[in-house]
Amino acid sequence: MNPGNAQSASHDAEALIEIGRRVHEAGLVPASAGNLSARTTGGVWVTGRRARLGELTTADLYFVHDDGRVEGTGQAGPTSEIHLHRAVHAVRDTRFVVHTHSKAAVAASLLCDELPNVHYAAAMIGDSIPVVDYQPFGSEELAVAVGQALGAERHGAVLRHHGAVSIGDSLTQAVDRAILLDWLAELSYLALASGATRRLSREEMTHAAERMRIQTYSTEE
Q1: What whole-number distance in Å separates Cα of residue 216 and Cα of residue 59?
Q2: Which residues touch 188 (CB under 8 Å, ≥6 apart)?
Q3: In the CATH scheme, what is the code of domain 6-215?
Q4: Three-class SS of residue 45?
């Protein structure tokens, strides 16, 4: 396998294994749900089909070249969401993509088209957190929709009847954003289900984002 060099490949594998362990411990990926990717020279590393993220080994990882060729030692093949991962990496110059099956995200997705601004920490994800309309899992339609939802600046999105996607430029940032997005989805669900109507305004969210930028209070490392 030649996805750059042996040292880089080992680092990518270790990072994905650690991300998988952390998001599993956070309760974001039941059983064999969810998938991960890491962008590197010439393609992306992705987790395999039905891989249990909390128990990943190097045999569960595949390298998908930019031309579509697949390399790996396992038998399962790349995740069914390979289109989603490649689409996000094409839209955004980001290192990691984390796709979870967060139950909070699924629940919130049934009640809104965009997560309500109930906490200023949502500014760490973007100017808004969209809910992507349902598309079949593994489809190119879903991949395109997620890429469009993230756009040039958002770091996460909720997928209706499905879960959530977040991105990060480091291992810690990728995990932190996945966990934060799940927490924000839970807050949103609780607020919407209770009928609470108070929201932070766009101006207040913009101000919060600026304060975070100045004080480096963000998921940046």
Answers
A1: 38
A2: 108, 111, 112, 115, 116, 118
A3: 3.40.225.10
A4: strand
